[in-house]
Design goal:
The chain has helices at 13-25, 36-51, 54-62, 99-109; strands at 5-7, 66-67, 75-81, 115-124, 130-131, 149-154, 161-164, 169-171, 176-181, 186-189, 196-204. It contains four helices and eleven strands; from the N terminus they run βαααββαββββββββ. 24% of the residues lie in helices and 27% in strands. It is globular and about 45 Å long. The strands form three sheets. The chain has a six-stranded antiparallel beta sheet with strand order 1-9-6-11-4-3, with no helix packed on it. It is an alpha+beta fold.
Length: 205
Amino acid sequence: MNDIKIFENFLPEELLSRFVNILISGRGEVYYTQSEEEYESDILEKNEFVHDNEPYLEILKKHNVNLVDRKYDIQNVLLLRDAFGKDYNLNPCFFPYPWRDIDSFIQKTLSVKLPLRTKINISFCKPTRSSGGFHTDMHNFKDTNIPHKTLIVYLNDNNGGTMFEDGTLIQNKRNTAVLFNGHTKHAPISHTNTKRRVVLNYNFI
């Protein structure tokens, strides 16, 4: 896919290490972005999409990836900024360092004009590599032509990744960043070989 850019060794190592150590220590507050009812409805919608989409099933088969099993599809979400760019009041250990320094680095490196929804996804090991469906991250931009970018930064090593609708699969590698058009649908691929998969998701104009 031509609009995907990959950056290896994206973040300064000192910032990355300090940030990840805080995240896995449990000192950050975890917020759930959906109620249980919304979550179950979302999973059902994704599964219906998958079962009715033969090309998607073929892509999964090509990469030896299974459909998501709802009972294993658990993810902790640490919200850093909402869809309108408003900062969340997080645990003080995140401020001003290292998150503020990471945020400043990203804004300077990628010439960010307006940061939008930003979060940390912490997902847990699953029995098989699986995927639940394609999506875009800025739901309020879904039916608009507002140009924006999505940045994914893999904060630790594991055998998960990110899949795109054309079948492109980006393997999860520590400190690798993936930048693409925010209207491009993508799907997370779960991991089987580590306790956690930690990903920074950063949307911006």
